[in-house]
Sequence to fold (197 residues):
Amino acid sequence: MNLLAHLHLSTGQPVAMAAGNLLADFMRRFGATDIDPEFAAGVRLHRAIDVFTDSHPLIRAARRLIAPPRNRLAGIIIDIALDHQLSRHWNAHAALPLTTFVRARLAEIQAYLAAHDTPLNWVIRRAIRDDWLLSYATLAGLDLTFERVASRAPVAAALRGATADIARHDAHFQQLFHAFYPALRAHAAQTHAALAV
Fold:
């Protein structure tokens, strides 16, 4: 799952844990360290979500939908495709409207990070400024998302144009989301309970 799902799977959790779950993938890149025990628990939750997702039979089967040259990046494409589906079916999984939820939760995380000297402050400012999490809702937003990811490393350049894969297999990704996301939510809730500090 990508950023939107990680934030959604932190609903009801302390802001520090939500920050760790949301930003775990950026820690190594920016040389960030755990801020406090709740943040560290959020990072562990993020990793547990990723392991569950990547090893799930439905996700593994979906990797076959992505043709060369992007097939080696299928995991990233599927994660973003599922965030696209979450955006589209948000009201079935959340009490607050998508925009309200994202803006409020990111503002809480930004305020939390501002109290700490961490390079992750830059990430959250960019996520808010460029509406990263709201961009998953449209195909044009997915193009921007893939461009952003592709610009980070030459190996990811094949992600440019991956929106076409998502659009081509929209019905399959929609079925995949409806079959997989409830299981992921249950797994995240169990993991959160085990990690509670």
